[in-house]
Amino acid sequence: MNKLYKLIVLLILGTLFIIFQNCGGDVYFSAPAELSSETPPVEINPIPPPIEVEPTPPPITPEPQPPIPEPPIVEQPVGPFRWTNPAWNTCNRVCGEGLQKRTISCFDQGLGKNVGSEFCNPNTRPIAERNCFIDNTNCTKWISSVSDFKNINRNDSYICLRKDINLNNVTIDSSFNNNLTNQVFNGCGQSLSKASIRRQSLFGMAQNSEIINLVVDDPSIEIYIPNNIRTTETIYVGGLLSFAQGVKFKNIEMNFKRIGLIQTTGPEANYCGAMLGSGRNLEFDNIKITGDSFTIKCMYSGGLAGYVRSDDKIVKMSNIDFSIKNLRYHGSFTENSSANLGGIVGYIDRDPQGTTQLTNIN
Predict the structure, then answer these.
(1) Each residue's pLDDT tens digit, 195-205
(2) Nearest Cα to Cα of residue 291 among 282, 301, 303
(3) Is the N-terminal amide bond of 66 cis, ω within 30° of 0?
(4) How many CB atoms within 10 Å of residue 206?
(5) What residues have CB less than 8 Å from 122, skipping those under 6 apart?
């Protein structure tokens, strides 16, 4: 085998020799390019500036998500079913006629809880409202009608409003004999509604009396006294009372749902207020007056009262909530007169022995 390899090598060398001879016979070898003396110098590029690598932001931690609540287990009503029979709520009036309410539910005795009312028999459902009556042994006269209100007897020392009375826009005039003297008028939380007040206040005048627990709802007050009427007399104008002396007002609510107007003129003093024209030695407690628009043009004008004075006693005003959205005052604009205007009271006066106490006025 080795002899065969040697023979092949000799044949290859012989073949190469013959080729070189045929090409001219000279064989040249050149030096590598990198060894040549004419090789140009190699240009070395400058070192590039270092690459600024932005810092790797911290990994974003996802906010924990609240667990998905499991759907509530709906318990199917099983029965038997019955209506509940709860106790009645308190009567909604202090005295007189009122209304009691209670909440009726359908009770599933199997589940031990209330379910929809459709599972109970509607024909056996107990009533949820009923009339009630709260007696007051102090009452010597119960007012049940407009006629009763027009004819208050001064011998009745304690008068109670038995129920809500709608006056149906009847005008309060001299036919209403409802001045109060040494009497108590207990509204019992009932309302006198839709009175039309054009010249005379709802109660006229009161002396040494009390008006308590009364709602005056939606009265129409449009009082205009021109120059040619009572030009030399003092004028008292108010929605509830014209003049009061030694009177206590407690738990009174007046809701003016229509535009109110009181306008008087004349050279003498005139006193005007949405509730009271003028008074002396008075007490106000828990009074609420609301409305949209009221205009008063008087020498003494106030949202609650035009003029209040304490003689040798005290005038108290506490827990007054007055919120008429658009209340406008104007003086009487008569010659040689000045206007005394106030949000609650136009003018508060007292003698040296009298005192005035105001608390929680809104």
Answers:
(1) 999 877 899 89
(2) 303
(3) no
(4) 29
(5) none
**pLDDT at residue 228, as a whole number:** 55
Cα separation, 215 vs 206, in Å, equals 18
How many Cα atoms within 13 Å fall on the side-chain side of residue 127? Answer: 7
Residue 220 to residue 274: CA distance in whole angstroms: 11
Q: Give 225's strand partners.
A: 264
Given the DSSP bridges, would you call strands 158-161 and 184-186 parallel, antiparallel or unpaired? parallel
Q: Are 111 and 153 in contact (CB under 8 A)?
A: no
Residue 30, pLDDT > 60, answer no
The answer to whether the CB of 338 falls within 8 A of the CB of 331 is yes
pLDDT band of 36, cuts 50, 70, 90: very low
Q: Contact at 8 Å (CB) between 189 and 92?
A: yes
Those residues whose C-beta lies under 8 Å from the C-beta of residue 300, and which sit 6 or more positions away, are 269, 270, 271, 272, 278, 306, 307, 340, 346, 347
The first and second tokens of residue 130, run together, are: 């009923």
Identify the pLDDT of residue 115. Answer: 95
**C-alpha dist (Å) from residue 189 to 82, 216, 252:** 36, 10, 9
Residue 350, amino acid:
R
Percent of the chain with pLDDT over 90: 43
Closest-CA residue to 239 (of 285, 206, 273, 269): 273
Instruction: Using the predicted structure, report yes or no on whether residue 71 has a pLDDT greater than 90.
Output: no
CA distance 331 to 237: 14
H or E, element range at 213 = strand 210-217
Q: In whole angstroms, what is the distance from residue 313 CA to residue 247 CA? A: 12
User: How far, in Å, CA of 362 to CA of 360, rounded?
Assistant: 6
Instruction: Give the residue among 303, 221, 287, 306 at the shortest CA–CA distance from 257.
Output: 221
**Which pair of structure tokens corresponds to residue 146?**
């407009």
- How many whole angstroms separate alpha carbon 119 and alpha carbon 345? 59
pLDDT at 109: 95
Range with the poorest average pLDDT among 10-24, 71-85, 239-253, 296-310: 10-24
Mean pLDDT of the chain: 83
In sequence order, what are the beta bridge partners of 214?
A: 252
